[in-house]
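Deviations from the work plan: none for this task. Representative record:
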Amino acid sequence: MEIPAGECVALLGPNGAGKTTLLRLLSGLIYPTQGEIEFEGAKFSRSSIELRSSLGFLAPSEHLYENLTVRENLDFFTALYNKRASAASVDEALVAVGLERWAGEYVSALSSGMKCRLSIAKWRLLNPGLLLLDEPYGVLDGGGVDLLEAFLKSHCRKGGVVILASHHVSRALQLCDRALILHQGKLTFDEPRRDPWDSFQRAFADFLPRGHS
Amino acid sequence: MILLRHTTLLLWKDLLLEIRRRESLMTMFFFGTLLIFVFHFAFDLVPERIVEMAPALLWLAFLFTGTLGLAQLFEGERGNHCLDALLLSPMDRGALFLAKTGFNVILMVIVEFFVFPLFWILFNLRSWNLLPTLFFIAAMGTIGFCVLGTILSAVTLRARAKELLLPLVLFPLMIPVILATIRCMENVLRTGEIGDAMPWLRLLLGFDVIFLTVGVLIFDWVVDV
């Protein structure tokens, strides 16, 4: 499987298909027992510390310290990624996700949707080449979804890659250029988006609930 | 240089979280002082016997309080999968090891700073002038304890009943550190100087350096277990 720069890919499949496992493999949180992962021409391994700065994993409501403030979280992660983020750029990222009033609040005081917005601000600042997302739609309100999708589109326009695992098929398909379907750990479908997309409808029909047309 | 910068950053974050939550330090402090009071009431010791028993009693208190700290060491990272966030980052995982070790050393040294004088007062010891030397030896032992403890705390991170498993794995491996520290402290209390106990101090120093180096090198694998 190859994903060129600037592509947005929807990773779909039933529960237990291996979507999150694939994302964890791609992010380097776990390592493959077979096969290889290459990123920007370099093999991804334990020693690829530099490559990690080009990888982002947006897990809604996660990967944030509850007892640090919103601003402290952003400062901490930008420093950890060896990026220099000025107070102005942090402010700008917070304004972009609508959290400017919450900059001094602890993350524990935020709702799940607001934490997801903060994660968007975090990855906006860190600007990774490859951004992985695991089920981001569940906690966001309408405005949050628009915000996320605008961010992902802008990320791809700038040459970044997005891989989005979701059960919100219609939303994911509207956003992405390509769909992958995983089933029992195997890639069963891999096609660029087209309209009409009968092959996708057929491939995905197996996972629809009974009685669904 | 980057390793040092990341270590400082992680240590700053851990200390800030501890200042705000006050979980580990308070628990360790009260448990440590409580143990000293229990020893005071349990042992009715004459001054000669106290000199023999003091190092062992003190280290028993430090071991138990330190184990409490180690059990909590990665708890802050488990919530919200923050450990994953750290492992995703372009940080040398050795920095995580150094920061966690440093954090636990700081907590234990703070506890020891209060427990030592309390022990001297309760057991009516007069050798107050020996306290700085004894404190130095205890700090060396504490580094050894925390270095090995951090490695094993990461190994048992995802284990069930890790609070039970950690001391079972840690204490047997800590025997060289416990023995060296107690022998050194005993010698200082008896003779007023390190003198004959120098080989034990060298053993302690060697243990600290070797396991600190090993920890930095292998932590990448350890934290993935």
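DSSP finds ten helices and no strands in chain B.
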